[in-house]
Amino acid sequence: MILAKIVGTVVATRKDERLVSSKLLVARPLDSSGQPDGNHLVAIDTVDAGFGDTVLIVSGSSARMASGLKDCPVDAAIVGIVDTIDIPQDTPKK
Fold first, then answer.
1. Residue pLDDT, tens place only, 55-87
2. pTM (2 decimals)?
């Protein structure tokens, strides 16, 4: 899974018929501290995400397993909107 932030949208008036009525969003992967990390990617939205949302993305064959995407030509799918991220700091050794 990829943690990412939605930074834009893609409009494609001509596309594979299996993608008609699907929302395509541009996402920027994030590292564990929430900082941009890596190249932008385009993902199909399955959870009604929007600009500025932090999301979970699956890629490759896992993307085609997302709800309603069986046999669709996709390589990345947004499957969750993140509410919070909690990474505890190292606890002091006794």
1. 999 998 888 787 777 888 899 999 999 999 888
2. 0.87
3-state secondary structure of 94: coil
Could you tell me which residues come within 8 angstroms of residue 52 by beta carbon, excluding any fewer than 6 positions away? 5, 6
Q: pLDDT (tens digit, 9 = 90+) per residue, 36-55? A: 998 999 999 999 999 999 99
Q: Quick one: which of 57, 31, 53, 30 has its CA closest to 43?
A: 57
The answer to whether the beta carbons of residues 2 and 18 sit under 8 Å apart is: no
Contact present, 27 and 6 (Cβ < 8 Å): yes
Q: What domains lie within the chain, and their CATH numbers?
A: 2-81 (2.40.50.220)
Please tell me what DSSP assigns to residue 70: T
User: Residue holding tokens 């943690």?
Assistant: 3
What are the E-state strand segments in the chain? 2-10, 24-29, 41-45, 54-59, 76-81
